[in-house]
Amino acid sequence: MSLSKPTITLLISCPDRPGIVATISNFIFEHSGNIVESAQHSTNQQECRFFMRISFKEEGFTLTPTELEAAFTPIAERFYMQWSVAYSRIPKRAGIFVTKLDHCLIDLLWRWKRGELDMDIPFIISNHTLLEPLAQMYDVPFYHFPVAKATRTADEERILEFISGKADFLILARYMQILEPFFVTAYPHAIINIHHSFLPAFVGANPYQRAFERGVKLIGATAHYVTDNLDEGPIIAQDVIRCDHRDSTEDLVRKGSDVERRVLTDAVRFHTENRVLVYENKTLIFD
Amino acid sequence: MSLSKPTITLLISCPDRPGIVATISNFIFEHSGNIVESAQHSTNQQECRFFMRISFKEEGFTLTPTELEAAFTPIAERFYMQWSVAYSRIPKRAGIFVTKLDHCLIDLLWRWKRGELDMDIPFIISNHTLLEPLAQMYDVPFYHFPVAKATRTADEERILEFISGKADFLILARYMQILEPFFVTAYPHAIINIHHSFLPAFVGANPYQRAFERGVKLIGATAHYVTDNLDEGPIIAQDVIRCDHRDSTEDLVRKGSDVERRVLTDAVRFHTENRVLVYENKTLIFD
Amino acid sequence: MSLSKPTITLLISCPDRPGIVATISNFIFEHSGNIVESAQHSTNQQECRFFMRISFKEEGFTLTPTELEAAFTPIAERFYMQWSVAYSRIPKRAGIFVTKLDHCLIDLLWRWKRGELDMDIPFIISNHTLLEPLAQMYDVPFYHFPVAKATRTADEERILEFISGKADFLILARYMQILEPFFVTAYPHAIINIHHSFLPAFVGANPYQRAFERGVKLIGATAHYVTDNLDEGPIIAQDVIRCDHRDSTEDLVRKGSDVERRVLTDAVRFHTENRVLVYENKTLIFD
Amino acid sequence: MSLSKPTITLLISCPDRPGIVATISNFIFEHSGNIVESAQHSTNQQECRFFMRISFKEEGFTLTPTELEAAFTPIAERFYMQWSVAYSRIPKRAGIFVTKLDHCLIDLLWRWKRGELDMDIPFIISNHTLLEPLAQMYDVPFYHFPVAKATRTADEERILEFISGKADFLILARYMQILEPFFVTAYPHAIINIHHSFLPAFVGANPYQRAFERGVKLIGATAHYVTDNLDEGPIIAQDVIRCDHRDSTEDLVRKGSDVERRVLTDAVRFHTENRVLVYENKTLIFD
């Protein structure tokens, strides 16, 4: 899946009709692009909609980014496309938010350092200082932004201002604060949260405790884009692990933390590799 | 797990205190029982409660069922036990309820015939006649009991009367009718239902459609004992299967039906092998 | 995944070079085909090789099968393609071979009857008569062909002659006979076998017994195309299930049979839906 | 699973016969022990053998370790038991061996630090210095012991002497050296190795490369006790992860490293919690 050479990736969504694939692949071919990955999907519902992710080698491709934009725009308009382009040699910048729990952060940093996650990390922000040493170990700038209930709006405004222009997307790696709508609006489909349950089960607080009380036989974790509706944004990745009557709530927390970090890492990888398209509060993952 | 020779199984639940295991194992030893399986659990909560499942060979054991009952009762009273005893040579009698869907029924019948499920099947009851040929193929008596919304109470009373004394527990193998409280009360913790979602997600109707709309990345199934609260009885078994944006609701139904039959079969096996203890609307599975 | 309307599917393999996707999608577009599914893969090894599966609606496509063949051949020659075309309205014909074990056969027949496997079943052949009633239940012609060690070659020649022209591919649903090379040669990459281990572990006889003796913690099953090297053909599908010290060899057989039927069914589905390409004794599965 | 209060755990193996459980539970009860966990297993083979793990609270138990040894020995002799006793308040000492790969080590250290693995780590030994900073970060003594092919015996003798009396068991966390028989003999069933394949598939070198070449659809990892036969010691834990034709050998390495660390951690946890009994080159895991 990791591609050694630089690639250009197009993500496209438009009403379905004949000729889209031919047009796009011709466009790439005419400018000497060599396709390395391609995936598409059409909804089979009333209004058919077409989705595509197509990657081609940057080497040999004859258009500069500006030229590509200019040359592709007429095609996009003809097919009423929503589209975006990404260059693999320009890693996305991921701002990470944490509170006190370290398991998701440590997994992200470790995978990032060994090259599994192709991204930059311009900052780690926390409402506590506990995880600062971990950030330092990986040479990532750490900033402490206290958040209090009474001053939440002002606190978040300060954070929003501080990070302005610094990050392409945000990762809430068990950040135990709810973001205000104005904050969420600033990063549409660009804030990834990990919720420690198999959504839509156990929306909200204390999912492990509630899973224990309900006596479920599997617990899970869900990575999703944050929207204004708590735990109801588009789901990117989910997984579960088996549990039984011998597991206390503390055991569920321990087992679940393994699932959380795995699921969050998957979601971040999909996002950094431009494998996610959002449509009608759901995701298409071209993995 | 299947034990070739007849066994006697005790299921015990009582307040925890020292000496329970010693007392029970002495009791078995004194009457020449040879223990083949044993499992126990203690809750670590405020009031500690002790649970045990212990199986010993019937061959060589010197007490008849009546004598066992008489000899064990004083022990049970001393420790304030809830207890039950089961003889493996007397299979439980499982009454099956179906509507039109065949996947769970076919799996139960096939496993039953090949000896995986140690039970008798005195009857299959359905509010439709579609699955009668399947019952005939396996030589299981099939009875058609129409149920209508307007006459539900009377309809269920007729069924309840008909099955009286014929079954030890009931399996709702995708029986698409809600049972009235008076019916449920007649079989406490003895009606196993399969719900086609990962409870507590998607309680109620059309879980696959709702899973599709929510865009989950896993779908599941849950086998539970029926109580008066819809889909809220003690969970016996659960499992999930992966899905993605390419799956239509019909695909989810197809994938899910595999999980449903696997989960229902597991739950039925646990029940027939006396591996389930219910406590505070949760199950302990001694598998 | 099931597509309600008839589709045409191209499977293509050729040396990688720019322009392949554009050429193919243009070809389809020029003849009014509407692409519904498309997947591709390029090896990143020294000699790059390109693989593609592309499906488009038959409705509206302006070429007859003969015309398609004539029109596409020059393209195929230009790119040195190996290619095949399949029409979804013409189901593949699957000949099934069994011996005495019923679990794989019952699963195939049940899924086939409910429409999960889009194929015809012209015959079931067995070296025993035990499963004839099962074939009759599903109205599939059953033929008894005894096979003996001493007469194996002649026995297989008779079978080969009998099935000539009747089947597009063969399914060995726990057929406990080894096929002679001349037989295998007649169906290249068109005989699907289920082996009851996680290959390459436990090649050959008695894999469950050997898994028990080795003390593995998971057992598996493998569906693969039959070649002249026992259990070494291209793997199509694999899965595993957890086991532990409490499982006897008989328990492994029981647990494993669930995995076998699931894996075999997956492999058959991939094959019938033209999702499999074979290259260098490995498969590419475009699912 | 983690038990908050100190416990004493007995591991027992002996020929099966009536009265063992009663005798042991009486012994514990008579000295005021309160059983918190108990599991047993009997082989159903020709010579029945009985295995048991039983844990009781140290608090209230009236025997000192010396007294327990003296009092239990006659019982053990009567039943021809192999037995051991472990006190949870005395963590086992785990010596870790590594080479250059960090994923298993980082997972062990992280889980150890957060209290998931109840053990002490007296040293990390490596034939390279690359991972010394990681050891320092967790304040674990790190020792560099170069090993060369020509001097292997002398090298290993020096290590063996150095660690003498310092560790109760050893963890080979991707230690890329083969241990000499004299070394293995010094730690019988006390050296845990992680092999990066699903044993017995791909015994020996380069399992990921060979998995890639064979075209398997799942890759795995196996934790086992080291014996003199390479990769043939008793298996403690195994797991797998799905892969497909898009995965290069490098992808398999990446995916597999997640399975390796999970499987190794499980095996270490079982060992530290005295949940493993070895019999006839297989393990019984009382989890």
UniProtKB/TrEMBL annotation, chains A, B, C, D:
Q: What is its EC number?
A: 3.5.1.10
List this protein's GO terms for biological process: 'de novo' IMP biosynthetic process; one-carbon metabolic process
The record lists the catalysed reaction(s) as:
(6R)-10-formyltetrahydrofolate + H2O = (6S)-5,6,7,8-tetrahydrofolate + formate + H(+)
Sorted alphabetically, which Pfam families does this protein's record hold? ACT, Formyl_trans_N
Which InterPro entries does the UniProt entry name for this protein? ACT-like_dom_sf (IPR045865), ACT_dom (IPR002912), Formyl-FH4-Hydrolase_C (IPR041729), Formyl_transf_N (IPR002376), Formyl_transf_N_sf (IPR036477), PurU (IPR004810), PurU_ACT (IPR044074)
Key words of the record? Hydrolase, One-carbon metabolism, Purine biosynthesis
Tell me the enzyme class: hydrolase
Annotated pathway = Purine metabolism; IMP biosynthesis via de novo pathway; formate from 10-formyl-5,6,7,8-tetrahydrofolate: step 1/1
**Which CDD domains does UniProt cross-reference here?**
ACT_F4HF-DF, FMT_core_Formyl-FH4-Hydrolase_C
- What residues does the ACT domain cover? 9-93
Q: Which NCBIfam families match?
A: PRK06027.1, PurU
State what this protein does. Answer: Catalyzes the hydrolysis of 10-formyltetrahydrofolate (formyl-FH4) to formate and tetrahydrofolate (FH4).
Checking PANTHER family in the record gives: FORMYLTETRAHYDROFOLATE DEFORMYLASE, FORMYLTETRAHYDROFOLATE DEFORMYLASE 2, MITOCHONDRIAL
The entry's protein name is Formyltetrahydrofolate deformylase
Q: What is the lineage of its organism?
A: Bacteria, Bacillati, Chloroflexota, Ktedonobacteria, Ktedonobacterales
The UniProt gene name for this protein comes to purU
